[in-house]
């Protein structure tokens, strides 16, 4: 009796495996997904609202440069210049990195002399920490690290102590 059950189970598994293999081979190799206009209900899909669980905490559009009292470069320009290899160093201010300063590569002046670039604040659109949404400087740190750009976190009070 036990032999018949084992043999029966083996037979079922053998037939199931064969059926599964045939079904896999018979299915189309390429996806049947169609390119669409990348909207859902008229709302453009973004990495923040197109997730399967439809997370809606994306009202934060990053830093508003009009609130800064120092010169800054837009976050979009920072990303473009980083893609071009024009970023030498990024310094993030602890604890969360909500403030960051970028040093770009030197530029050639009108007289042909190289002009050293001083650190400048990354401003308009820079992601600031939002515990209720997807905005976070952690994404910037990840991008900088992925591009191989040197960076550090600085505790402002300690930086003043070191001067």
What does this 3D model show about the protein?
By secondary structure, the protein is of the alpha/beta class. It contains 4 helices and 9 strands. The chain has helices at 2-26, 75-83, 138-146, 156-162; strands spanning 39-40, 43-44, 72-73, 87-93, 99-104, 107-108, 114-115, 120-122, 151-154. The strands form 3 sheets. A 5-stranded mixed β-sheet has the order 3-8-5-4-9. The chain has a two-stranded antiparallel sheet with strand order 1-2. A two-stranded antiparallel sheet has the order 6-7. It is elongated. The model has no long low-confidence stretch (mean pLDDT 79).
Give average pLDDT, whole number.
79
Shape: elongated
Low-confidence stretches: none
Structural class: alpha/beta
Could you tell me the radius of gyration in angstroms?
Answer: 27 Å
Number of E strands: 9
Order of helices and strands: HEEEHEEEEEHEH
User: How many strands, what sense, and barrel or not for the largest sheet?
Assistant: 5 strands, mixed
Secondary structure tally, helices: 4
- Which range does the strand content fall in? 15-25%
The helix content, as a percent range, equals 25-40%
Question: How far apart are the termini?
Answer: 87 Å
In spatial order, strands of the major sheet run 3-8-5-4-9
Q: Could you list some keywords that capture this structure?
A:
alpha/beta, 5-stranded mixed β-sheet, 4 helices, 163 residues, 31% helix
